[in-house]
């Protein structure tokens, strides 16, 4: 999955990038087209490397931001009960800690539909969501939050500071890793943040991606794949200090990083602990990265072999969850309608459309429950517990789940 090619310098420090995976030409992960519509005109090479200086893992080629984050962007944070609870609990934590002082102010980058800031707003705390997607920004406003419909950068950070004063908290969830121009973003955060304020962000953890072989976490939106080591380097390079790193179970494994100005906060023991774990796991070692690439090949081979055997045996097989990450899996493995009859998904905007690149019909969950298939490939595996609880009748009817993280297997529970 890797080949010798010209690679750009590291976006964080300018160091050399060593390519270690190449998933070939891929469509945009959220390019859901209607039947009869021409195939996706835009594809890009989904390949990545690791910096030999700061160890940041990143895509070698990036898709244009306006193709990824636009008016029809389909993901809604509040669509999952797990994520609703996750962000509501975080809002409570902020209210009890960083926002418990007189006239506090919080800014969220990539506020999505406002699920976290809605609780902040209800508490009467000054806030601002920065959301570049038009539909999401409008949804956030309808949910009662104040929204700026722009991309965040240095200029916007300075403008917000001038209009609203310094922020006690700048927060980003599953957003920071999506932005290629992090130097400008970090300068904007530096301009906006109060002297004792914190920048908190949570994103998929590269350590979990390697450990679980969850390679479908790699798609167009995820430009960076952070580790504690790489974030510590990035923070120091931009005048911040990494003071906390908390493991999170959501989205298949994330870390919540807390950055502050040097010397203003005590560095928590979790930072040292996770740095030691990363060193022991060899996350920056070429041998570890080669094993990851080999594991990806193994999972793809095993999954396609299983699906072909089931279809040849006359079994009905569908997909569950037309997720952005499933685009990587389906296109890399070459899984189309001949192996999956359809993919069911709860998002109305995706229903009636086709999966990016592979052209599998997307249907509502009603199609799944009206006539249960024999097998369902769990594409939304990071919501497995929630989905399996909701679809218990599927297993009761004799249906079986196919899972592929970390290995391909069939399960009845």
Automatic annotation (TrEMBL):
Keywords: Methyltransferase, Transferase. InterPro entries: Methyltransf_Zn-bd_dom_put, Methyltransf_Zn-bd_dom_put_sf, MeTrfase_14, SAM-dependent_MTases_sf. GO terms for molecular function: methyltransferase activity. GO terms for biological process: methylation. Residues 249-406 form the C-methyltransferase domain. The keyword Transport does not apply. The keyword Methyltransferase applies. Residues 10-69 form the Methyltransferase putative zinc binding domain. Pfam families: Methyltransf_13, Methyltransf_14, Methyltransf_23. PANTHER family: BLL5978 PROTEIN (PTHR43861:SF5), TRANS-ACONITATE 2-METHYLTRANSFERASE-RELATED (PTHR43861). This is Class I SAM-dependent methyltransferase.
